[in-house]
Amino acid sequence: MSNKTDVLVVDDDPDYCELASEALKACGQQTVLCLYDGTEALDWLHAKGPYAGRDTTAQPRLVLLDLKLVALDGLEVLRQMRAAQPTRNVPVVVVSGTDDQAVLRSCYEAGANSIVRKTADPAEFERKMRGIFEFWLNVNEQNRESRV
């Protein structure tokens, strides 16, 4: 597997991963990786387990993270990303269907850069992915001290 991944999508729903990947690729983003659980995502990000030896300086420019994951939930993935040097500064957009303000507050407290509400409407979903792509990969100035 290539070390070059600009966007990592972490969601346990393969259909959502495919839609996100297709929408990002339609924007011109060719290097999108989908992983389906939090443990695998952390293994990939931190080069552990089956991803041992992956260059951890080659982090994605953006992580799209679902909260409701099997094995390890998205909030814990986010906390572990922020606690580790290689992933501390990687931008994370939480993509979730929840409107629970306490949960959303917890995401920001754990280090989420942004939260975007999931939608079942394909046109709205594509609009949101285009907005995420445009801001995080074209407009936003990356942290020059980070590895992203």
Characterization of this structure:
It is a single chain. With 148 residues, the chain is an alpha/beta fold. The chain has a single domain (7-121, 130-137), classed as Rossmann fold (3-Layer(aba) Sandwich). The chain is 40% helix and 14% strand. Strands 2-1-3-4-5 form a five-stranded parallel β-sheet, with helices on both faces. Helix 1 (14-26) packs across helix 5 (122-139) and helix 2 packs parallel to helix 3 (74-83). The protein is globular, with a radius of gyration of 14 Å. The mean pLDDT is 89.
Brief overview:
The protein has helices at 14-26, 38-45, 74-83, 101-110, 122-139, and strands at residues 7-10, 32-35, 62-65, 92-96, 114-117.
Number of helices: 5
CATH architecture: 3-Layer(aba) Sandwich
Shape: globular
Helix share bin: 25-40%
- Uncertain segments of ≥5 residues (pLDDT<50)? none
Total separate domains = 1
Report the mean per-residue pLDDT as an integer: 89
Rounded Rg: 14 Å
| Total beta-strand segments | 5
How is the main sheet built?
5 strands, parallel
Layout: helices, strands, pairs:
Blueprint: E1 7-10, H1 14-26, E2 32-35, H2 38-45, E3 62-65, H3 74-83, E4 92-96, H4 101-110, E5 114-117, H5 122-139
Parallel strand pairs: 1-2, 1-3, 3-4, 4-5
Helix pairs in contact: 1-5, 2-3
State the main characteristics.
Rossmann fold; 148 residues; 40% helix; alpha/beta
